[in-house]
């Protein structure tokens, strides 16, 4: 089995002959083993020869941080000085030389570029500014550099592009064009900046697929997502952003992003937060890369649920709801890509009941060693799928990796 083209440093755990777990240990993890929170599953027996160069990157968060810790990290314990970014980023594909020159006194207020279109320099400047602010500026002063109107304009511009993408995006690299798949980044702005520079910035030579979970847990979810949205607006065909389970109202209200936005934008916070929520609804759910690699945050999904007939529902009027929405066991069949394309993804929180279950499955499901498809009882949403389902999904859709 030849894995060399996949990634230079990965760990392969053999769980099952058809069902292997690929964990990526990034070079900056300082020997500490980190897992992709969503591992990749594929059949072990088959040799992988992909029509494109595929790199996998995964980041795991340091730990869940309380907002106090978050604030301390920003105001009292900033990370060590980082090299300035603008120069490295303005050269596509350049391996950045680290430049330890001191940071500027204070960055100017970020304004939308004259002429209306984002440029590579502008995105480079935004990254440098976000980086500087994260190290030197108290969290609640961020609006003085990054005005709420600018944040909202950028989010809306990206959302308009994302909205036009189908649920399942076909990413078809040209010959010689590499694809970098990035796992959960969870508000780790500095890791993302490092990663983009390390892998080489998005360009005509390099496509990026980010596999969701941009916010929550880390202290800089807003900055991280803004930077990725800026790249999306700049290079919509080279940067693909998928939705993660954390890109939802529920997760962001529990795991930190909502509080982060409120801490940074105070009175304007609710407005800014709402814009981000609307943007989450526009994020596509999955990609197929080079016709053979399926990527999604959670994974495999069931076929469309058929509810009891209207006549039956009418008859039960008065005591509806639960009885009507009990999941029909026959719906526990593997979904098709066509069904995925037709699902309604514009939901703040993917429903765990009712008819529109595909978004919840794609974002929340987990692989399992048990055969078949079953409800994901531990999460209360999504599915568990077994090695046989991986095989069936790959074979049915003529894929090699999921
Ligand atoms: Mn995650």
From TrEMBL:
Alphabetized GO MF terms: metal ion binding; protein serine/threonine phosphatase activity
Reaction equations catalysed: O-phospho-L-threonyl-[protein] + H2O = L-threonyl-[protein] + phosphate
Domain Serine/threonine specific protein phosphatases residue range list: 242-247
Keyword Manganese assigned: yes
Cofactor requirements of the protein: Mn(2+)
Its EC number(s): 3.1.3.16
Root EC class: hydrolase
Keywords assigned by UniProt, alphabetized: Hydrolase, Manganese, Metal-binding
SUPFAM superfamilies: Metallo-dependent phosphatases (SSF56300)
Coiled coil ranges: none
Disordered as annotated region, ranges: 61-111
Protein family according to the UniProt entry: Belongs to the PPP phosphatase family.
Protein name: Serine/threonine-protein phosphatase
Organism of this sequence: Setaria italica (Foxtail millet)
